[in-house]
């Protein structure tokens, strides 16, 4: 769930040190905001006197107005009972927030010091019912502070209301100014309103999300205002965003679990329904990855992931209004005609290195950024064009065979390692060197494409140099889960890892039609179709593996790309038969009832031939996804042609 502070939800600009070293413009902004809220009064000439000293009774008045305190009496003989400030002193005293310097002396005109400020703010936080969890801070002059002052600082530190100076000191005896007072009261109010467990609406002003003061007891009441207010961009509660009008959703890095005493990030699961039943799980996604926001309630968020529309739990995601999105995923066509994808991690607010997927479509413009939620349907960010393009290796079945020999794969492995920054070390350490012939052997034995096996290993093990590859002979991240990255399956040799991935994980699971729950199509794919749906939390896993296949194929002579006619089923629960005809033996069924938006992401197939079936309709002969021990028809099946859409042009 999105914490408001992460989006710079503010009532004022309050950055920098609490005192003295904050820019004067920030103090003036704080003064103006507090004046607008009736907490601090400006001067007759329109100025705020941010640099002027603030007295104890003035600070008492600021606190009283900020908290809207009830009437109260005081015992002090040096405070006038007839003055407006005297009434405010009575309110803060009765509330237990400020005390006198003695039983009868308040010293109303004495300037308030930094240590008196933090002692008061601790009482303010307590009075407001805000949770106090001490957070230790270190200062070079803390030996000049009493234990009570240090305790007050520690108790309010979590709300970032106070801070020290750049030199590491706190200077407890230094007098505060009106600008300082405005700044830390504004910070307190920001923290208080973020902690308010009622609903509110917020708008974006100056690239910051500003929460309106009105609060609502129910989600429905807040939603009605949110929908009718054109300026509202978020519906919030307790420091968390529950609804936006437009924008993105991403997996929350603070959604964690504890494994072996270590706190780790959890993935976000996408469901087909809002009951969030296990049977409704569609796919899952790692923290920071972009999903399109569609709608939300207080319990769930409706999103698009790849070509899939589904639902995620509110507490597993963060919502960002469109005007506050700081970065995005995009695709570009390079000058060499290749399609590159650059991902953006919204949890860390950092772009990632772009990688090639394959040849870009001819009608894509060089240098123009394109958006795509599924890696197939591209729209130019300048609005000039929309393009549909299925990258070949991303949708080629892993049940195909490569045209390359083991020697050629070995040659490419060495060439690729030589291109790395640490080439000499990589060549000496990589567990992939010399594995070319074994990849071919696994292809022949388990009916899984050798170039795919190599590409997946390169991606998962950093070309055979990762710590898991070096220490565990684990080339595929087997049993290295998102919430247990320090673990992994141990293999005696790299060959054992390759065969385990080829047979156990691909042949008998993700590429096996009888593997209920894992089989979503026997191609790398995306988050709607193919191996990527359930194998990896990274939504770009399929395109990254395809990119490794493309680079290898390009380096070795382009023998594989567009060799086969590829297609995708366009209808839920499509039947694959032994011969061409609806009266023929049923081999298996494409079980997914969800084939993506506009039926664009059914099951990947490789079309080998076509003929008129016994029912008078055209049928396609396709490579079967059955594993060998279940196949009695020489690795082929038949599907009625109108149930398949062709997605590429063969050589």
From TrEMBL:
<protein>
    <recommendedName>
        <fullName>SLH domain-containing protein</fullName>
    </recommendedName>
</protein>
<dbReference type="InterPro" id="IPR051465">
    <property type="entry name" value="Cell_Envelope_Struct_Comp"/>
</dbReference>
<keyword id="KW-0732">Signal</keyword>
<dbReference type="GO" id="GO:0004040">
    <property type="term" value="F:amidase activity"/>
</dbReference>
<dbReference type="InterPro" id="IPR002901">
    <property type="entry name" value="MGlyc_endo_b_GlcNAc-like_dom"/>
</dbReference>
<feature type="domain" description="SLH">
    <location>
        <begin position="14"/>
        <end position="77"/>
    </location>
</feature>
<feature type="signal peptide">
    <location>
        <begin position="1"/>
        <end position="22"/>
    </location>
</feature>
<dbReference type="Pfam" id="PF01832">
    <property type="entry name" value="Glucosaminidase"/>
</dbReference>
<dbReference type="Pfam" id="PF00395">
    <property type="entry name" value="SLH"/>
</dbReference>
<dbReference type="InterPro" id="IPR001119">
    <property type="entry name" value="SLH_dom"/>
</dbReference>
<feature type="domain" description="SLH">
    <location>
        <begin position="136"/>
        <end position="199"/>
    </location>
</feature>
């Amino acid at each position: 769930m999105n914490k408001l502070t992460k989006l710079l939800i503010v009532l004022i600009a309050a950055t920098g040190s609490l005192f003295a070293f904050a820019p004067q413009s920030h103090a003036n902004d704080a003064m103006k905001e507090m004046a607008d809220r009736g907490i601090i009064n400006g001067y007759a000439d329109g100025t705020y006197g941010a640099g002027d000293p603030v007295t104890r009774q003035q600070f008492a008045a600021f606190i009283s107005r900020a908290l809207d305190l009830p009437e109260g009496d005081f015992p002090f003989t040096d405070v006038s009972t007839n003055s407006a400030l005297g009434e405010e002193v009575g309110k803060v005293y009765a509330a237990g927030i400020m005390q006198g310097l003695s039983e009868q002396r308040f010293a109303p005109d004495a300037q308030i010091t930094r240590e008196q400020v933090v002692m008061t703010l601790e009482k303010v936080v307590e009075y407001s019912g805000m949770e106090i969890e001490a957070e230790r801070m270190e200062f070079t002059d803390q030996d000049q502070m009493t234990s009570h002052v240090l305790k007050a600082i520690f108790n309010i530190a979590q709300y970032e209301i106070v801070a020290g100076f750049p030199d590491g000191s706190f200077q407890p005896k230094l007098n505060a100014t009106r600008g300082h007072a405005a700044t830390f009261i504004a910070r307190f109010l920001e923290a208080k309103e973020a902690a308010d467990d009622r609903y509110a609406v917020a708008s974006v002003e100056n690239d910051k999300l500003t929460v309106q003061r009105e609060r609502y007891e129910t989600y429905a009441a807040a939603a009605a205002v949110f929908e009718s207010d054109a300026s509202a961009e978020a519906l919030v509660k307790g420091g968390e965003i529950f609804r936006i009008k437009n924008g993105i959703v991403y997996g929350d890095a603070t959604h964690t679990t504890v494994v072996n005493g270590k706190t780790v990030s959890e993935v976000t699961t996408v469901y087909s329904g809002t009951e969030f039943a296990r049977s409704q799980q569609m796919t899952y996604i790692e923290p920071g990855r972009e999903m399109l926001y569609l709608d939300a309630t207080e319990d769930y968020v409706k999103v698009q992931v790849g070509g899939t529309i589904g639902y995620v739990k509110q507490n597993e995601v963060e919502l960002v209004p469109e005007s506050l999105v700081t970065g995005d995923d995009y695709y570009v066509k390079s000058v060499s005609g290749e399609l590159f994808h650059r991902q953006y991690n919204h949890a860390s607010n950092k772009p990632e290195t772009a990688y090639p997927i394959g040849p870009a479509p001819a009608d894509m413009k060089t240098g123009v950024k394109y958006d795509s939620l599924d890696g197939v349907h591209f729209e130019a960010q300048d609005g000039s064009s929309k393009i549909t393009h299925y990258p070949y290796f991303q949708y080629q079945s892993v049940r195909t065979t490569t045209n390359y020999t083991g020697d050629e794969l070995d040659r490419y492995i060495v060439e690729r390692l030589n291109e790395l920054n640490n080439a000499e070390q990589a060549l000496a350490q990589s567990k992939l060197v010399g594995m070319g012939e074994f990849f071919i052997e696994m292809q022949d034995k388990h009916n899984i494409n050798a170039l795919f096996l190599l590409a997946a290993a390169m991606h998962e093990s950093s070309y055979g140099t990762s710590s898991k590859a070096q220490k565990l002979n684990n080339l595929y991240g087997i049993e290295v889960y998102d919430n247990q990255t320090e673990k992994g399956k141990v293999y005696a040799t790299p060959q054992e890892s390759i065969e385990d991935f080829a047979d156990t994980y691909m042949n008998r699971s993700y590429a096996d039609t009888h593997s209920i729950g894992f089989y979503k199509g026997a191609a790398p794919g995306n988050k709607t179709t193919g191996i990527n749906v359930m194998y990896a939390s990274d939504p770009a896993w399929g395109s990254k593996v395809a990119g490794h296949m493309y680079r290898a194929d390009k380096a070795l002579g382009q023998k594989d790309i567009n060799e086969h006619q590829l297609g995708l089923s366009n209808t839920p629960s499509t039947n694959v038969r032994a011969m061409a005809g609806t009266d023929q033996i049923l081999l298996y069924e494409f079980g997914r009832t969800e084939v993506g938006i506009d039926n664009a992401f059914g099951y990947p197939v490789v079309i080998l031939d076509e003929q008129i079936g016994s029912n008078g309709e055209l049928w396609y002969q396709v490579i079967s996804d059955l594993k060998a021990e279940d196949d009695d028809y020489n690795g082929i099946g038949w599907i009625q042609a109108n149930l398949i859409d062709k997605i590429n042009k063969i050589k």
